[in-house]
Amino acid sequence: MSEQDQRHMKRALALARKGVGKTSPNPAVGCVVVKDGRVVGEGWHQKAGLPHAEVNALSMAGSEARGADVFVTLEPCSHTGRTPPCAKALIAAGVRRVVAGMVDPNPQVAGRGFALLRKAGIIVEHGVMEAECRAINRPFIKHVTTGLPYVTYKCAMTLDGNIATVTGESQWISCLDSRRYTHRLRAAHDAIMVGVDTIIADNPQLTVRHVKGRNPLRIILDTRLRTPESVGVLSESMAHGTIIATTESNPRVHLRYTQQGATVIVCDEYDGRVSMVDLLQKLGKRGIQSILLEGGSRLAGEMLQNNVIDEFIFFLAPKIIGSDGFAPFTLRGITSMDQAIKLKFGQIAHSGQDIIVHAWPAEAVCSPA
């Protein structure tokens, strides 16, 4: 990998990041067209159904695309979906070389895009900054390879590991900068997930407010359908984007929520509660690629023990509550350190007066770049 190739791929990655959270169920992709050392075209995939990154970059490059080198974060697609194949667009433009960050794991592509390009006489290289290219599309990669959504757990906690006082008060542990960051996370995910206890205790809006962005779907885990019909997420303007997961199979009971516009998903029962594995499979079939898990501690603990959390984001505030507070995970049965659930640290950064800690399961498949 030459220094110039790396520089152009870095630019393609920066373009791709502009689409993160906006392209689902498609991946976020960036593309740069270079002719005689000059950047003549740039583009990124802005939204599902709109032209892909390569088409946008070729459009900007115009006739200068002929004989040019193309740097793209993901293998150009070879199939016709809502838009034509990008590989054919590159061939028609007469590019000389295509450098891709990674192979597209989508079974509909999976090397076929490269094969089309090579058959047309175009030089193909891939694997440039692959770890970084994979990192921006973790939810897409997991969903397209397993059918399951990528789950990110987020919580604000005090320095001594509490998410609320003994009375349940948690507003606000984190600073305003951290809350803005949380709302950017919300805007970048397909759905937010909370337990019914959080809905009853806090009546949260679960919307994007502090930043610009679309509201994600709202998923409530409610085994026995205890969600009050008067809560905000079931209001006239919000119910259509709310999903309630339950083990209650009586459709007449569901009417309390479906008549307001909400969706009820009946799941298998495991240990007296909604089966997390079954729920995630059902959500994946609905095309939900990414979930931001926001609590509470019982739900978070259950998902942690079921090994279905892919990424952790902790906002650590310089505050202390003491031993009467609530821990982020309700876990039982760990009596020795060798039984502890092990994580590995990713990025650690400041957010106003707080510290943001990213972590992954020690055996994570989609580990940090």
TrEMBL record:
Q: Which cofactor does it need?
A: Zn(2+)
What residues does Zn(2+) bind to?
Answer: H52, C77, C86
Query: Would I find Nucleus among this entry's keywords?
Result: no
SUPFAM superfamilies per the record? Cytidine deaminase-like (SSF53927), Dihydrofolate reductase-like (SSF53597)
List this protein's GO terms for biological process: riboflavin biosynthetic process
Q: Which residues bind NADP(+)?
A: A156, W172, T198, D202, T223
Where does the CMP/dCMP-type deaminase domain start and stop, copy by copy?
Answer: 3-125
Residues that coordinate or bind substrate: S170, R186, L206, R209, E294
What is catalyzed by this enzyme? 2,5-diamino-6-hydroxy-4-(5-phosphoribosylamino)-pyrimidine + H2O + H(+) = 5-amino-6-(5-phospho-D-ribosylamino)uracil + NH4(+); 5-amino-6-(5-phospho-D-ribitylamino)uracil + NADP(+) = 5-amino-6-(5-phospho-D-ribosylamino)uracil + NADPH + H(+)
Kindly give the Gene3D superfamilies that the UniProt entry links to this protein.
Cytidine Deaminase, domain 2, Dihydrofolate Reductase, subunit A
Q: What InterPro entries does the record tag this protein with?
A: APOBEC/CMP_deaminase_Zn-bd, CMP_dCMP_dom, Cytidine_deaminase-like, DHFR-like_dom_sf, Eubact_RibD, RibD_C, RibDG_C, Riboflavin_Biosynth_HTPR
Write the Enzyme Commission number(s) for this entry. 3.5.4.26, 1.1.1.193
> What domain of life does the native source organism fall in?
Bacteria
Q: Which UniProt keywords apply?
A: Hydrolase, Metal-binding, Multifunctional enzyme, NADP, Oxidoreductase, Riboflavin biosynthesis, Zinc
Q: Which GO terms describe its molecular function?
A: 5-amino-6-(5-phosphoribosylamino)uracil reductase activity; diaminohydroxyphosphoribosylaminopyrimidine deaminase activity; NADP binding; zinc ion binding
Instruction: Tell me which residues this entry annotates as catalytic.
Output: E54
Its annotated pathway reads: Cofactor biosynthesis; riboflavin biosynthesis; 5-amino-6-(D-ribitylamino)uracil from GTP: step 2/4; Cofactor biosynthesis; riboflavin biosynthesis; 5-amino-6-(D-ribitylamino)uracil from GTP: step 3/4
Q: Which CDD domains match?
A: Riboflavin_deaminase-reductase
Bound cofactor: record note = Binds 1 zinc ion.
The record's section on PANTHER family has: 2,5-DIAMINO-6-RIBOSYLAMINO-4(3H)-PYRIMIDINONE 5'-PHOSPHATE REDUCTASE, DIHYDROFOLATE REDUCTASE FAMILY PROTEIN (AFU_ORTHOLOGUE AFUA_8G06820)
Query: Per the similarity annotation, which family is this?
Result: In the C-terminal section; belongs to the HTP reductase family.
Biological role: Converts 2,5-diamino-6-(ribosylamino)-4(3h)-pyrimidinone 5'-phosphate into 5-amino-6-(ribosylamino)-2,4(1h,3h)-pyrimidinedione 5'-phosphate.
Provide the protein name: Riboflavin biosynthesis protein RibD
Recorded source organism is Oryzomonas japonica
**Upper lineage:** Bacteria, Pseudomonadati, Thermodesulfobacteriota, Desulfuromonadia, Geobacterales
